[in-house]
Amino acid sequence: MLPDWWQLDVTEPFTLGPRRLPGRIWTASGCFGYGLHAHDFRSPGGEGPYAGIGAVVTKTVTPAPRAGNPMPRLVETACGALNSIGLENVGFDAFLADVLPALEVRGVPNIVSLAATTPEAFGPMVARLHEQARGYAHWHGVELNLSCPNVAEGGHDFGSSAATVARCVASARAALPDRALLAKLTPNVADIAQLAVAAREEGADAVSAINTVVGLDVDLRTGRPFLPRRFGGYSGAAILPIALAKVDQVVRGAAVPVVGVGGVATAADALKFFALGAVAVQVGTAQMRDPFAAAGIARALARGPR
Amino acid sequence: MLPDWWQLDVTEPFTLGPRRLPGRIWTASGCFGYGLHAHDFRSPGGEGPYAGIGAVVTKTVTPAPRAGNPMPRLVETACGALNSIGLENVGFDAFLADVLPALEVRGVPNIVSLAATTPEAFGPMVARLHEQARGYAHWHGVELNLSCPNVAEGGHDFGSSAATVARCVASARAALPDRALLAKLTPNVADIAQLAVAAREEGADAVSAINTVVGLDVDLRTGRPFLPRRFGGYSGAAILPIALAKVDQVVRGAAVPVVGVGGVATAADALKFFALGAVAVQVGTAQMRDPFAAAGIARALARGPR
Amino acid sequence: MIGTPISPVSAVGRVTANRYVSSAFLRLDIDLGLPFDFRPGQFAMVNEPGPGGWTFSRPFSVLAAADQTLSLLYRVVGRGTAALAELPAGASLQVLGPLGTPFPAPTAERSAVLLGGGVGLPPVLAWCERWGRKDDIACFGARDGAEVPWELLGPRWHVSVDRPNGLPPGRVAFTGVVTGLARTLPGLPGPGRADILACGPLPLLRAAARLAQERGWGCYLSLEEHMGCGYGVCKGCVVPVVRGGSVRNATCCQEGPVFAAADLPWLGEEDGGRGEDTH
Amino acid sequence: MIGTPISPVSAVGRVTANRYVSSAFLRLDIDLGLPFDFRPGQFAMVNEPGPGGWTFSRPFSVLAAADQTLSLLYRVVGRGTAALAELPAGASLQVLGPLGTPFPAPTAERSAVLLGGGVGLPPVLAWCERWGRKDDIACFGARDGAEVPWELLGPRWHVSVDRPNGLPPGRVAFTGVVTGLARTLPGLPGPGRADILACGPLPLLRAAARLAQERGWGCYLSLEEHMGCGYGVCKGCVVPVVRGGSVRNATCCQEGPVFAAADLPWLGEEDGGRGEDTH
Ligand SMILES: Cc1cc2nc3c(=O)[nH]c(=O)nc-3n(C[C@H](O)[C@H](O)[C@H](O)COP(=O)(O)OP(=O)(O)OC[C@H]3O[C@@H](n4cnc5c(N)ncnc54)[C@H](O)[C@@H]3O)c2cc1C
Ligand SMILES: Cc1cc2nc3c(=O)[nH]c(=O)nc-3n(C[C@H](O)[C@H](O)[C@H](O)COP(=O)(O)OP(=O)(O)OC[C@H]3O[C@@H](n4cnc5c(N)ncnc54)[C@H](O)[C@@H]3O)c2cc1C
Ligand SMILES: Cc1cc2nc3c(=O)[nH]c(=O)nc-3n(C[C@H](O)[C@H](O)[C@H](O)COP(=O)(O)O)c2cc1C
Ligand SMILES: Cc1cc2nc3c(=O)[nH]c(=O)nc-3n(C[C@H](O)[C@H](O)[C@H](O)COP(=O)(O)O)c2cc1C
Ligand code: FES
Ligand code: FES
């Protein structure tokens, strides 16, 4: 049952910066791979896991392939999870050669998540992407991952300074005239709105908030942290109130469109972000548990006969 | 079943700064009132809710009485709670006149939590406290609440600057020669270790980490935040991994004794803080649910025949 | 005025019965494994035992206590009560109680007018069972006849319903609100000769306060606030009470849930004349 | 080599049976309400349905599938499996499967040496039920005789136990590890004439790889890694595989759980000669 104030259909196209996107429920980066793993998945309802999804934000790719962090990389906690994947990815070349064309062929609406170790590295990556994918109908934009706390080189500090956020966004924006540009912000700062302002001022069309929260869990058998790098990124239901707070701070403090991420598992969770003014919502950890999660939320928040 | 590496008895006295405290499991400020509400509570086991507790950290008192924030003040979330009590308290005068003597008479080991609106206000408060309670056997110290995010005047920003933390600690330390001085830190900063360093340098005997995390929840019936002030302090099981991460950062980055707080409901939760090097652990939200929570944890983590 | 307080007990009890006693209300019996006593108007905090369960326990008025068994009456409204309703006999429950300030005990000079609405029944029913005298008046209001837990109500109980459907054969009910019902009863006490003791939704409490004022009766109301701790330590449940012109916060869980209506002047104000007892 | 892949299905099923089939193993049957097929070695992710449940689903090898019913065999090790063990018939469960790369199908030239340890039984048992030929060898190892789910094992299964207690009357078992048992069997195939298919704890897998090497057999091992998604998207379950001297991460959930032992040279290294099959 949808509340009275709810007037949107999240499966209808909407405008984000220079681009029309097919819908407002997305999958979050790193939680649905490159969007190519679930095409043959079936469910009794009949609709596939991509039905109604506005975009798959692809796993963050870096200029070179990355093997990621040592195992174990995941810890389940009482109401969420810690991850320390360490941005394992195929690298930008393979992504452009193999992944992006496959997404286009399969018609998966997508936003490409990028990370780099210097702000100025984003421009050339985006330029190459733009050159190759210029004619693609399903490539809708770029999300700059400015916040992954797991990467040793840069990592945590990278996205916590407004000045660096500004440089990253400026570099990417110059190379991306006709697709949406999003900056994904870290919650591990005192004042996230300030980062969002920096992103907006350099031309970001929206910010995504939030990435994972720094967390740690201890293995009582050993008395040491479960994760070899001690800290992991905390995600899942436990971080929903934190993500809502950060999104509210950005919506009211930075006047930039916000894509809400963090702890969304149900349509009700997603509605909370929309209630605060988010323009779209991403499903992360819940999508790992259920490849149909985002599609189910989209269906629940579509209006009209269904 | 206690793990092999566990060697402490949390019900044995230990030294904190200039003081011997009777034990390492405490109740957290604001979650057990002034420590005077549960004296007649019974349980089948026979032991009372104060048995084995090292200290009750009393509800934060401010120079003047405070009526607190508008209702509602509490929201339960999927795995924790948001509160916006707004430091309702009887005020420092009434605390000194009525509460502290009662704690002494009843023999409740206690640490007095104080808040003020300027750093230099702490000194005179501590001085008055010291004067009145000098001879008290059960008053063990002061915890400076530098982090309550709910108070409009100052509040959130108050404890997030190392310079302010330093001033607060310096002011209080000068007036507190023979009791433990703790600074309670906010987690809502990028670098908590830096706050802890500031506290240590000005003579704090320990820091308590963490206070609540800024959070928000939306009432779907109205589409607006549940709490009149939008944000609340997030506590309970959901924040345990965040608190563990912050404690680890302080232990390894600030070389100051740390009292762990956040999400502790069981002996296993408390052990995780001790594993990271915390010298004591506080029980907050779980104590609200079960007045015997801290006592139960203390019993579970006492060694020897029981 | 009500004797020495009863020490609250914290115990894990065992569900011995948990069943619908009307279309909407369930009665839950919990064997606490130790004696339990209470005063009518007091409540207990209930939760799943262990680290599972809900962050905050749920408050429920005590319906009855016989030896080691505590009984509650509840309706499913959210996730906690939904989970309660699923509990089979034998399940464990964490209980803390009795808590809070009860209704006043009877006095020789004044009779009691008991008004219960919906799941506000337990405290007034408990009062009636323990202390009810011939002259006391007991009224219970529900949405319809099916919602009324007839088996719990003795013959002295008058019943009102919003809609007169669902009445079992041989049962009668006044159609209207519970204060409306009370007004129709013969031989109502004169001014200064009665106290209303009421528990139920806010409109009922407002109407009760107004009725008491009209008739010159005393009035005690059991309020509901969302609770964190239930035993006075968190200040999450405060209610403004006004005495001698000055307002202060009282904890609903400890200084309440029963308050003298005289201390709650805002009850009338907020109403703005749209009181349920006007229809 | 194993035919067209089977599309995974996501469905909420209904528990039809959930009972101990030995002192430590439970068999769980779930009616999925739609046809379910799998290849031996594949697994399913299981969770409580709805927003409750665990953040990550739990992986379990498929023991059997008959029409719409999926069967699992499991042991209680932590909070998820403890909750599973509590489920009564009629309870709902979220299932995603079949997932992962199965054991290779049989080939005419080579027989199979099936080695299962503990709850590593399901994939090798399923292989045996579907494809087992006269010459294939099936060995199962457990801690003791009581732990062995005798009712699931046909007469062709050889059994080893760490301790020979708890054996039902008329049952025999080799005392020692399962690879030790295999070594004692008559008529073992010659080099190049068999593949080991093994699933169980790491020491068993190491011993299996060593046995295969000694005998000149092929070897396929089903690995266990903690899993986030189970379908390849999170990279939380990677295993280093070495081919042609270069290492890369393979997902245990998608490229595994079955790997050729040849691709896992680290298996032997970490062992450091303390292999369980030496005792
Ligand atoms: C003193 C007192 C006595 C009560 N006695 C009874 C009784 O005898 N029978 C009965 O059915 N109900 C009674 N209630 C109301 C009962 O506490 C709520 O119905 C119950 O807490 C709802 O829990 P939930 O998880 O199902 O609802 P949810 O809405 O999911 O709960 C979310 C949070 O809100 C709180 N909450 C929701 N509704 C109420 C409410 N009406 N009052 C207080 N807190 C609420 C819950 O405790 C919880 O913290 C009483 C309340 C109080 C304060
Ligand atoms: C491909 C595969 C097939 C499996 N097949 C079976 C089977 O048929 N029968 C059976 O009993 N067990 C099987 N397991 C192991 C089973 O997944 C774990 O026993 C189960 O996840 C434990 O969950 P828990 O909540 O009880 O344990 P907890 O320790 O509380 O779980 C905490 C986390 O660790 C993970 N975890 C814990 N132990 C293991 C483990 N051994 N392997 C993988 N993840 C683990 C859990 O999934 C969870 O994410 C299989 C594992 C894998 C990877
Ligand atoms: C396993 C895992 C991998 C992730 N990888 C990435 C990533 O590569 N890039 C990124 O921007 N965010 C990544 N995230 C963060 C999520 O996109 C999301 O911001 C975060 O998990 C909070 O949302 P959730 O609670 O819905 O998961 C990852 C999260 C998880 C759990
Ligand atoms: C209702 C409530 C009131 C609180 N009041 C105070 C307070 O007055 N002073 C303070 O320093 N911390 C206060 N806290 C914070 C707790 O002491 C503790 O730091 C925090 O809740 C995290 O611990 P927990 O998860 O165990 O509750 C309060 C917390 C709650 C839930
Ligand atoms: S509920 Fe905590 S003070 Fe009343
Ligand atoms: S469990 Fe997610 S990739 Fe294997």
Describe the 3D structure.
The complex is a heterotetramer, with two copies of chain A (306 residues) and two copies of chain C (279 residues). Chain A has 306 residues and is α/β, with parallel strands linked by helices. Chain A has a single domain (14-301), classed as TIM Barrel (Alpha-Beta Barrel), CATH 3.20.20. Chain A has helices at residues 92-106, 122-133, 162-173, 192-201, 240-254, 267-276, 285-289, 293-300; strands at residues 14-16, 19-21, 25-27, 55-57, 74-77, 80-83, 110-114, 139-145, 180-184, 206-209, 213-216, 218-219, 224-225, 231-235, 258-261, 280-283. Chain A has an eight-stranded parallel beta barrel with strand order 3-4-7-8-9-10-15-16, surrounded by seven helices. A four-stranded antiparallel sheet of chain A has the order 5-6-14-11, with no helix packed on it. In chain A, helix 4 (192-201) packs across helix 5 (240-254). Chain A starts with 13 loop residues before the first strand and ends in a 6-residue tail after the last helix. With 279 residues, chain C is α/β, with parallel strands linked by helices. Chain C has a domain at 9-99: Translation factors (Elongation Factor Tu (Ef-tu), domain 3). Chain C has five helices and 16 strands. In chain C, the strands form three sheets. In chain C, strands 4-3-7-1-2-6-5 form a seven-stranded antiparallel sheet. Chain C has a seven-stranded mixed sheet with strand order 11-10-9-8-12-13-16, sandwiched between helices. Chain C starts with 8 loop residues before the first strand and ends in an 8-residue tail after the last helix. The chains are: A alpha/beta (306), C alpha/beta (279). Chains in contact: A-B, A-D, B-C. Chains A and B meet through strand 11, strand 13, helix 5 and helix 6 of A and strand 11, strand 13, helix 5 and helix 6 of B.
